[in-house]
Amino acid sequence: MGFVLFLEEILRILIDPILLLSLVGATLLGIVIGALPGLTASIGIGLAAGLTVGMPLTQALLILLGIYIGAIYGGAQSAILINIPGTPSAAATAVDGFPLAKKGQAGPTIGIATISSSIGTIIGLICLVFLTPIIAAFALEFTSPDFFLLAVCGIVICGNLTSKDPIKGWLTGFLGMMIGTIGMDGITGYPRFTFGFLELMGGITLIPALIGLFGVSEILFSMKDGDSGKAIKQIGKVFPNLKTVVKHLRTSVISGLIGTGIGVIPGVGEDIAAWVSYDVAKRRSKNPEEFGKGNIEGVIAAETGNNACIGGAIIPVLTLGIPGSAPAAVLMGALMLHGIRVGPMLIFDNPNFLYQISAILFLSAIMLVIIGLPIAKVLVPVLSIPKSILMPLILVLCVIGTYTLHMRIFDVYLMLALGLIGYFLRMYGFPAAPLCLGIVLTHLADDNLRRTLIVSEGSLAPFFTRPISLVLLGIIILMILSQNRTLMDRLLFFRKKNSTNQVKQQ
Amino acid sequence: MDKWIGVFFVLLSIVLIVLSQQMPEPAHMSPFASPGMLPTIIASILLVLGLVLTVKNLPKSSKDYKSVKPDWPKLKEIFSNGRTNTNESMRIVTAFIIIALYVFLLGRINYYLLTTIFLTMFMLAFKATSWYKVILISVVFSVVVGQAFTRLFLIPLP
Fold first, then answer.
1. Chain B 112-151, residues with CB within 8 Å of chain A CB atoms
2. Which residues of B26-46 are buried (b: 16+ CB within 10 A; e: fewer)?
3. I need a surface site. Which of A5, A341, A390, A485 has the fewest CB within 10 A?
4. Which residues of B touch A170 (CB under 8 A)?
5. Residue B81 lies in a domain
6. What is the tens place of the pLDDT at every residue in A445-479?
7. Are residues B98 and B153 in the same domain?
8. How many Cβ atoms sit within 10 Å of the Cβ of residue A486?
9. CB-hemisphere CA count at 13 Å for A447?
10. Looking at the DSSP assignment, which residues form a beta bridge with residue A183?
């Protein structure tokens, strides 16, 4: 039944010229956005969000998801051709992609990266189709204390995984939550931290905040040094060697599953998915010493991993209303603009929605190959544009894109302020992803915390007596304790001691 | 620097706790519906994390104290040779000032004129290319984006 609905959606898109054109245009735009250093998937989706408000839902989804998938893949093109990842998720691709390009294999490497991205998207899509109903059914068991702890757990995990120093990750995550509390309180109507600004009554609007955090900060950061890298001009034949694809299919599947798994974790995102997939491929390889010097397996792992993360990152959006990555957070904001209530009830209220998204992901994955391969040669001159020309043009798009969301200049001021905050955070090694997740999760945490306490009349027992809450609490405590080296060493020592004793007893 | 960022977070969280505590309890509702509840909890977490960041980055021994003392001769040498990140900082400050001016004047000056001036100023400040190319790019981009938004997407510009 599900497969029929999936095929129906594919056919519906293919026979409608406007939808098909939107898909082609969005994927192409996404690839260009991803390839241009300074423009990321989050900015691309954010800019498109305002423009798609008046469109029918299917067309809007086609554009938003097409840009998302195109941009995550597009980063690989600049990573391979100029050694500058167009998006952070392509950083791992550059490690082996650029050395391969320098050896005169830019074309085939881009070809392999394209096929890998497509395979990754499809693996993510398969997991999305099978896992979403299971997780959504499980999410229906969640009650208020579980949702509150889930929000805190999201911040703690995201902070832990996105920063070298988890304290910094947690600080930005909870700072994001603090920013999220700005505005009129939904329960009592009290204006929190608005300081008399009427514009703040509605709260911090998600998309301008994200465009500022990821777009403006990136523009400022890019202006630190002047020159762009020189693009490799001779790229040769782009069509990939299918034997290489088949030879490394196992790596692709493993990376795809890792990428999807990381995508499901709140706020972690495509860049971590690519690095973890790359690292696992390196550990599994018979020739790990070749990684970093131009091993195609590294490109395959990174590109499959980051694109597979997309499907994974959408799963918690559809089931829990929590984004799996920064672009997924913007996508969630855009879905809300279209009046879609994300969360456990979504696929029960609108069962077609999952198949609609799956069909779009599938078609976008195919479109990546159709557009991605021939565009590589066209992109070479575009990638050579100096940053001092590109960045102000991107800024104009960010400003206009932010303004178009609610036609408010105040949103543009907000974007600039958060851009400056994002710049300083990045400068001192504080990750932006937990901040973004914090802003998104505030309402979930706030409403559910107070609801729990109102019902329990102030008792904290519900947080410690429900099985789901206990598991979440356990994860939070474990994540925090894992930072205490001495304690962990002691625990490990105990474990070692115990196992030694057991061996001795045997 | 992390030590001072930690101190900043400690001070910020104290201010936030005070502000959250000043939020009134709802009159005809449960006291647990108070709007200041979550902000107080988050600010308290920020306070603890700020303290941990500060303490973690404090010098641990007298030897470390010596190592954090500024090496004045070296600093003098760096400044006199211009090997600091002054150039980088100047680029950032310049970029931010031009961007802030653009954002501030948005809606007060005609979009096409303002965007053309902004793009021209930005590119000239960073010596992107020759002045006539800069003006050409600025004018064409402003017009194309403006027309695309107003005619194609039917969205009024600021």
1. 115, 118-119, 122-123, 126-129, 137, 141-142, 145, 149
2. beeeeebbbbbbbbbbbbebb
3. A485
4. 45, 49
5. no
6. 998 999 899 888 888 888 888 888 999 999 899 88
7. yes
8. 7
9. 11
10. A192
